[in-house]
Amino acid sequence: MTPSSLRPFIFALCAFAAAFASPCRAQSHTDASTRTAAPDRRIAVTIDDLPWQRIAKTPPEALVARHAALLAQLREGGAPVIGFVNEDKLEVDGVVRPERVAMLQAWLDAGYALGNHTYGHVDLHEVGIPAYEDAILRGERALRPMLAARGETPRWFRHPYLRAGRTPDDKAAVATFLAEHGYRIAPVTVDNGEWVWAFAYERVLDERAETPERAELLERLRLGYVPYMLNKIDYYERQSQALLGYNLPHVLLLHANALNGDAYAALIRGIERRGYRFVTLEEAMRDPAYAREDGYRGRYGPSWLHRWAMAEKKPKEFYDGEPTVPRWVLDLAGVDSE
Ligand SMILES: [Zn+2]
């Protein structure tokens, strides 16, 4: 073997696979810690906006098949998953559709957990606390009996848009209300623009004629999505190291959409190649970091890692370097910004 003659080949291979293969990444820099002791790499997968992200915009004849494709991908992925439900998405013209309730039953039958994401996907910062609490309770009218039939109760809540209150009092009021109804808040550490990739993917899927160009564009989106997400995970791993001094068990946010119906298993394999193993939300949240103070007071919904950093008054530069969704994907999605 002649390592020097192999080097250009290995370099090319690494460049090609940079987004997919952790061994290549480890060789590309000299951080001793990556060679001596592998950091703890655990992550929990959470999937929002069940039964389907943009259900009203999805062609009704495609919905069942796309949902089945997502469940097939989840099965192939093999990771524990919790899905968060918007119960308004079970209805058409105010009437609950049995085929949509059946989609949720299929999640439970497949062994996945379900949580509450409010009825109507409401923004706490817009509607205020009384309306928000109403949306939480309306958001469990199907969920609570479905879980009761299995001897369970709703245990997890995810804020729509990750908007959790703009004052300590508001945050505490909602958290207390949730606790009184048996819920824990499901934070997110790996916040990301997956939803933009998914909007782009579904627009191409639904608005373009079935041509080779359309197939190529869909493939380009799938192939771009996975490394984009892996770069996000790398970024939040660095943020965790910088803030906490260790890599905490992460919580990843995804949505129920056609992109994951085609690319979820590839994403899971990519995360595994980064050295991660998949854990439940409950296991991830045993890490004491999740008890830290949420120091965010703004109108949006950043990663909990950044909320904790804000509580510590980290300088602006602390947040630098976060990967962004490429312009061509924003354009395809028809959105101005993430
Ligand atoms: Zn949502």
Describe the overall structure.
This protein is α/β, with parallel strands linked by helices. The protein has a single domain (36-333), classed as Glycoside hydrolase/deacetylase (TIM Barrel), CATH 3.20.20. 50% of the residues lie in helices and 10% in strands. The protein has 15 helices and nine strands. It has helices at residues 3-16, 22-27, 32-36, 60-77, 98-109, 124-127, 129-138, 143-148, 168-180, 194-207, 212-244, 258-273, 281-284, 304-311, 327-333; strands at 42-50, 81-85, 91-92, 95-96, 113-116, 156-157, 184-185, 250-255, 277-278. Strands 1, 2, 5, 8 and 9 form a five-stranded parallel sheet that branches. The chain has a two-stranded antiparallel ribbon with strand order 3-4. A two-stranded parallel ribbon has the order 6-7. A hairpin with a 2-residue loop joins strand 3 and strand 4. Helix 11 (212-244) crosses helix 12 (258-273). The radius of gyration is 21 Å and the shape is globular. It starts with a helix and ends in a 5-residue tail after the last helix. 37% of the residues are buried. The site of zinc ion (ZN) has 5 residues, from strand 1.
What number of structural domains do the residues give?
A: 1
- Rg over CA atoms: 21 Å
Order of helices and strands: HHHEHEEEHEHHHEHEHHEHEHHH
Briefly note the CATH topology name.
TIM Barrel
Bound molecules: zinc ion
Count of helices? 15
Topology:
Layout: H1 3-16, H2 22-27, H3 32-36, E1 42-50, H4 60-77, E2 81-85, E3 91-92, E4 95-96, H5 98-109, E5 113-116, H6 124-127, H7 129-138, H8 143-148, E6 156-157, H9 168-180, E7 184-185, H10 194-207, H11 212-244, E8 250-255, H12 258-273, E9 277-278, H13 281-284, H14 304-311, H15 327-333
Parallel strand pairs: 1-2, 1-8, 1-9, 2-5, 6-7
Antiparallel strand pairs: 3-4
Helix pairs in contact: 4-5, 4-12, 7-9, 10-11, 10-15, 11-12, 11-14
This protein binds zinc ion.
